[in-house]
Amino acid sequence: MHSITTGLAFLVAASLLPGHSVASVFGSREDDPCAKVAGQPYVPPADARACQTSFPFNETLRQNVLDVISKVFDFYTFEDYYLAPTPEFNQPAVNIRDELARINTTTYSSDHAFNMDLFHTINGLNDGHTGWYPYCYWDTFQNVLPAPVTSLVVNGAEDVYVVPDLVEFISLLGTNYTGYFDSIGFDWARLAGARVVSIEGVPAYSYVDHLADTVSGNYLDHGVRVNSVFSSYRINTGNYSQRLGDLAGPAFPDLDNLTMEVVLANGTESETVVIPYLASYVGKPFTDAASYWENNCAANNETNGVNLLVEGVPESRESMIRQPRAALAASRSLGVGLPSQFLPNLTTLDGGDALYSYVLPGNKTGVMFVGTFEPEDYVGFQFQVESVVSAFKSAGVTQLLVDLSNNGGGYVCLGQFLHTYLAGASFGFPGFSTTARASDLAQAIISNDIKQGLSSIYSLYAGSNWGNPANDSLFSDSYNWIEPDVTKTINGVEYDESQRIYDICTPWNVTIPEDPPFDLSKVAIVGNGDCASTCAQFSTVMYERHNTTVGMAGAQVLEWADIDTEIKTTGVKNDTLAPPDLLVDANFRHNWRAAYSWRDGNQDTPIAYLSEHPQLRFPYTVDTYMNPQALWTFAPISLRSAEQVFGSS
Known about the structure:
The chain has 649 residues and is an alpha+beta fold. The protein has three domains: 14-140 and 283-323 and 559-591, no CATH class; 141-281, no CATH class; 338-432 and 507-556 and 610-646, 2-enoyl-CoA Hydratase, Chain A, domain 1. Helix content is 29%, strand content 18%. Strands 4, 5, 6, 7, 10 and 11 form a six-stranded antiparallel beta sheet that branches. The protein has a five-stranded mixed beta sheet with strand order 14-15-16-24-25, with helices on one face. α4 runs antiparallel to α5, α8 packs across α9 and α15 (412-423) packs parallel to α17 (534-546). The chain is globular. The relative contact order is 0.14.
């Protein structure tokens, strides 16, 4: 048992909790820092911080939050891997329990300070499947700098640059944003295309490395985190958009400004520029501190899980169970459209919210831009792929380019589906073997599932969700796939996990071609390396099983409400090992399953700890950095000829 609570009762009087007494802290609206910024789309970061830091630290909330986090970590598959550094990823050792104990005894000046310490500690694990997201502060006020950066090759030299499309891009934020800089006389537009010599007094790439180590998170691989610092294109909610990047669009309003030494476009001499941030508000509406807390911070009817045997099974539950997810945490960050000059001018083949496809000039290369594996329509995605491949074949396409730029993952089964469709039905099972942690509470859950006869609709642990990869057999709901558990030693600590299992994804909703629709030697994957979870599983299996060229690896994640629903429905909520309900609106998601590579020599190493470097790397240029079509046209002929990417024609 890893609980670190002190036995403090959590059924506290409402007056003890921030939000119920916060109005009395300020004598009038003029004294209320949240009232000062209420209703404004953009505010100076200092004003945003004044509101967020005005809520006093509360010991009851600390104990509640840490009790939940400590007990959910008992399900976490990678905890013991962090006990030693991972040199190939430059990941330092982290004793998670020691860090939680430190946070439990630290003196904090505010509720904000406590939550930020907890957020950055868990974010520092660089595991995008695992994180503490307090909705009181996470993506409520987001800083926006009018100078996003990217890495470009210009005249044969690679450097950091302010994005050349700065004016078109930042203007899309609207006059509420740009008008602020007009009012203070700051000319941000002149920075377009400027070469960045240094940031905050250190060489530009060194500062980018600093942000990759301290801000970006999400990936063990440092190089991928570096790419996250830069601005880049993506598909977001069915539209092309341009990311600000972690330098220009951090999730918190921590900085008031950023100092850059730049050489302006067409200039020769460097100059130092202090660039102000402006914080965008993307949280729920409020009018003062009390309503800010009530609407953004206090637990609501969606914060915690429910007992499905009492509440009934919603339609979304079947989707979650039958279509397990492996994705980065969804961010409520501000999205900005891709400037129009960068939108592809090709005819879209059956485009949707997650996938856009085109035939490049010459009708030889088809492009499939998969922006996410979590579309609005799970079944519709399958029909899209079928329709697009049919259109490719009709157009005479013989080679395929798959763009996975900024793909944060999604449904595990859709990653398997896309591989299956490209590899053909005769290939067989396309996924990975996985395991879940065999903690005492996990074993109690599955035992209670069996005793109560719960099916897969009610429980993620129910056997009918899973199969045995060793003999391709399917489990029944009466089968306990955790016991007997498998014990192995990780960094000197005994770790108990289940036997190997796999997701039951079939039957598919479309007919899979028996043979590959394209010669797999003529299929290539491109991207910026920001390819997470299901995306990484898809690209890795394409590389490992088919030697697919990659020019750019987790398993299933459970959100807090999902694991809490599991606990309540199974009837173990009163177990001393079970976490209580959260008293604040937040999510603590965790990596619930670990996936393992197919490569024989690495069968004991989770795929998250294997690094598959791209065979080809080509830096962005002014012509390709934000222009998907230009990149797709360039990729097949990079490094002298198309044959090096797609094989001989």
